[in-house]
Amino acid sequence: MQKRITVWVAAVLLGGCGFNAKTIQLPLPSANVASTELKPIILDSVADARDFTKLPDASEPRVSKSVIQQLGSSGRAAVIFGIPDVSLVFLLADNKTVAAQMSDIVGLVLRERGYYMVEPAKAPGDAPHISMRVTEFWAYPPSNLGRSLTFTRQIKAWVSTDITIKAKGIEQTFAVHGSGANIANNYNEENISETYSKAIDEYTSSLRSKLPASL
User: Fold this and answer.
1) What residue ranges in the chain does DSSP mark as E strands?
2) Does residue 163 contact residue 132 with C-beta atoms inside 8 Å?
3) How many whole angstroms separate alpha carbon 84 and alpha carbon 9?
4) For 53-95, how does the pLDDT look when each residue is reduced to its tens digit (9 = 90+)?
5) For site-directed labelling of 201, which of 11, 103, 129, 190 has its Cα 20 to 30 A away?
6) Is 136 left (phi over 0), alpha (psi -120 to 50) or beta?
7) DSSP state, 153?
8) How far does the chain reach from its first CA to its final CA, in angstroms?
9) Which residues of 81-109 are buried (b: 16+ CB within 10 A; e: fewer)?
C-alpha cells in the first residue's frame, strides 16, 4: 500500500494526470504523557468513512468527479485538502493515511490517560478496546467574494470521528469534533498545516472531555 501511494503521487506530479497533487506534513498535537506505567488498550479498527461527494459545510462535491476517480482508493486514503473548482489536492506526506494520522492523534490523548494502543494479539484478554470511524478530515477555502476582494480569504479544516470504547463489559460510542479557520491567501503547506493545527487542538480538547475517566 505505501509503495503504491508513493508511485501514484510521483505519477501525478510528473505525468500530468489532469490535476496537481502535493504532499504535506501535519504536526501532531502536544501531549503530557502519563508518568505511570502505560497499560494496553486494543485498537480494533480505524475506518475512513469520509464522504467525498460533499464538502463539510456544503452539498457540493469537495473535488471534481474526475479527480475523485483519478485519486483512486489509495489517493483518497491520504488526501486531506482540495478545492472544488480547482484541480489541486494535498496528500499526507510519508505515505501516511488519514486513518493512521487519526490513530496517532487519539493515541497521544490516550497516553495522557495512561494507555497505549496495541493490536489484539499483543494485549491481555481483559484490556479495553477502542475503534474509530473517521467521518471528517478535510480542509479547503470556502468561496466568499467579499473575502476575495479584501484579500482575507480563509482556509477551514474539520476533524471528526465516532469513537467506540468497550471496557469492563460496557460499550460507549461518542462523536468527537474539531474545526479551525485561518486567514490565508496562499494555499501552501504552512497555511494548511496551521489551519489543521487549530482543528486538531479543538478535537483533542473535546476528546479529553469525552473519554471516560477510567477504562
Assistant:
1) 20-24, 39-48, 79-83, 86-92, 115-118, 129-140, 154-167, 170-183
2) yes
3) 20
4) 899 988 888 888 888 889 999 999 999 999 877 788 999 999 9
5) 129
6) beta
7) -
8) 33
9) bbbbeebebbbbeebbbbbbbbbebbbbb
